[in-house]
Amino acid sequence: MNLFQVRSAGVARVRRALKRPFVTALGSKTETENVRVRVRLAGGAEGWGEASSSVVQAHLKPARIEACLRRLAAGAVGQDVRRWRALARSAFSRCGEVTPAASALESALLDALTRQLGLPLWRFFGGATDTIETDVTLSAWPAAQAATAARDAAKEGFRTLKIKVGTGAGPDWERVRAAAEIRPKPRVILDGNQKMTASGALALVERCLSAGIAVELLEQPLRRDDLGGMRRLTRRCPVPVAADESARSPEEALAVLSSGAANAVNVKAAKTGFAASLDVIAVARAHGAPLMIGCMQETSLGLSASVHLACGTGAFRWADLDSDVLLAEPKPEGRYVRRGPRVTAAS
Question: How would DSSP label each residue in 67-105?
Fold first, then answer.
């Protein structure tokens, strides 16, 4: 009997409320409805993955994710999970725009494989460390609300705030200023969600630095296809500029870094999956470019594989793995332990 053969695969939706409304320059939501997949091997091991939905991207609605994931999961039955890279490539070739579905299946296959082997996933990814520190995200709220959330985050021990901007020069500045006034002073990442102008992004960064706000990174300020604008901004910006939506694959990451359209990359498993994320890491290392790892709105169960990827590779200067903190989960389900900003991968 082949202990590594997928015997069954099941798909189901899960709904979780957000502790606070999640607001960006693209839209807002008060809950997330995600789609989970579970695979069971002939040897008895189970593996889990999860795809997060989106309120602003029509191709990432729960029904479409579920339909896609059911097709992909059915195709995995009978396959050997030791061929996980080939299975992942096949899933991504068949998922179209619904990449979180393919990534969720890849996560489930890897989870099952490493459980069957008795090997922690973070060790499978390289074993660099079992603990990392993450930031916490502040939505594009009014300044007073952002300040309250920042103070709450500081009480929990978070030292880095990722702040959503791109809603206008005045509101952006007031939000960042209010959040950064807390003590101890936080490090700050600015996330433009493709909704800024080059001049506006540069002005905000410079204003923050002049005010003593410790901005470390500017994430995807311009449209993903405006590589010329990104390149000009990157040359002038006093902090690193990270490509997120502009780097959805190893090939795009290579193009972005080679052209100077960014000097950092945000890796998200929901965009690329895990095999391709390892390729993006290799591309960035070859260019001497720092990396960030991000997430969507996965529950702790869905976030687990990304936590293990970050720990195992030790490749990321910035970790934005905070979706579990933002959700009102009845109990943790992930293969890691969180203590404020510190997450430790479970063995």
Answer: HHHHHHHHHHTT-BGGGHHHHHHHHHHHSTT-HHHHHHH
Residue 43's domain comprises: 6-118
Structure tokens that stand for 57 in this block: 């991207």
Dig out the tokens for 128 from the structure: 């660099």
Pick the last residue of a domain from 66, 96, 118.
118
245: in domain: yes
Q: Indicate if 152 and 94 belong to the same structural domain.
A: no
Contacts 24+ apart (CB under 8 A), 260-263: 260/231, 260/234, 260/235, 261/227, 261/228, 261/230, 261/231, 261/234, 262/230, 262/234, 262/289, 263/234, 263/289, 263/290
Q: How many domains does the chain have?
A: 2
In angstroms, rounded to a whole number, what is the distance separating the alpha carbons of residues 90 and 75? 10
Considering the domain architecture, whether residues 248 and 341 belong to the same structural domain is answered as yes
pLDDT tens by residue, the chain, 347 residues: 899 999 999 999 999 999 999 988 788 899 999 999 999 999 999 999 999 998 667 779 999 999 999 999 999 999 999 999 999 999 999 999 999 999 999 999 999 999 999 999 999 999 999 999 999 999 999 999 999 999 999 999 999 999 999 999 999 999 999 999 999 999 999 999 999 999 999 999 999 999 999 999 999 999 999 999 999 999 999 999 999 999 999 999 999 999 999 999 999 999 999 999 999 999 999 999 999 999 999 999 999 999 999 999 999 999 999 999 999 999 999 999 999 999 999 98
**Residue 111 and residue 137 share a domain:** no
Q: What is the CATH number of the domain that holds 58?
A: 3.30.390.10
Do 107 and 132 sit in the same domain of this protein?
A: no
Helix H or strand E segment including 344:
strand 342-345
Taking the model in full, what pTM does it have? Answer: 0.97
Q: Are 51 and 103 in contact (CB under 8 A)?
A: yes
